[in-house]
Amino acid sequence: MNPSIHGALHGLRVVDLSRVLGGPYCGQILGDHGAEVLKIEPPQGDETRTWGPPFEHGVASYYMGLNRNKRGLRLDLAGEAGREQLLGLLAGADVLIENFKTGTMERWGIGYEALAARFPRLVHCRVSGYGADGPLGGLPGYDAALQALCGLMSVNGETGGEPLRVGLPVVDMVTGLNATIGILLALQERARSGRGQFVEAALFDCGLSLLHPHAANLFGGGKAPTRTGNAHPNIYPYDAFPTRTIPIFLAVGNNGQFGRLCELLRAPELATQPEFESAGARSVNRDALRSELVERLASVDGEAFVETLSAAGVPCAPILSVEQAIAHPHTAHRGMTVSLDNYRGIASPIKLGRTPATYRLPPP
């Protein structure tokens, strides 16, 4: 990608005081799309610099994955000199991102109210665990604890098995995404009013927001959600299946797709049986349907069958490892990896036609 292309956020100045994941992920998204991001770390550095192995030139890969397209500076904000330097930087900034424990910046005299009075156009974004008040207000938030508290673990895992953490920091990452959305909304409103505002993305709120369709099912009068392994709680066959060669995932969402699946398995009669002829019936009778499909898939070459199904419009995929997914030819075609000096990472998934993401700076 040509780094001389100005991104959609060219000219936007961001001061990123955040550490660990949610806030830095937000700052990286803004930086990828042209914002000038200054990451300010405490004297000891962002703690994720030590979250390894693996390490790249002494810095943990965890940190490297969240902090490209940022310049770096270390400041001791607990000291007056550091705070004065920060105020000088904020004088020319549009956005502040921080995730200090509630009350910390207020204690230093640089909380939202103080900064808003001094910099009325500043958009101040706080990533927090639970918000500032309420029964859990002010507590620190960590992804796995929020997955547990917000019900995500209760629906993740095998049927009859123990609750499991989702295998990636999904709450932290969606909080970073919502922080980014909130900042862009506030900037859009500022264009009309001329005023900045406070934006908060709390891990607790974002964790709850991920509960679809389980919360919707509960609100709709259904039974309490349970763990269903790889299977979807509402539709079937939407599940992982073994084949003669590799495991595959079938994501069949309607009658037409199910009919084509049955035809390609040389079992068209399945699609017309009363217990399988509608989406609701297939969901209720999923155990019987799974047995039928497992029996027929046992002699199938998984790789070839995925290609055949995909060509016929039946959603499916091989179940790949992370290494295989990154090496997939479509990953290269979509430009979804970045190489910059000695840095490698996952590229921005947000594609803009005239002002695409660019990759200008490795992590500081």
TrEMBL record:
Gene3D superfamilies: Crotonobetainyl-coa:carnitine coa-transferase, domain 1, formyl-coa transferase, domain 3
Organism: Ramlibacter alkalitolerans
InterPro entries with a match to the protein in the record: CoA-transferase_III_domain (IPR050483), CoA-Trfase_fam_III (IPR003673), CoA-Trfase_III_dom3_sf (IPR044855), CoA-Trfase_III_dom_1_sf (IPR023606)
Name of the featured protein: CoA transferase
Keywords for this protein: Transferase
MF (Gene Ontology): transferase activity
Pfam families: CoA_transf_3 (PF02515)
SUPFAM superfamilies attached to this UniProt entry: CoA-transferase family III (CaiB/BaiF)
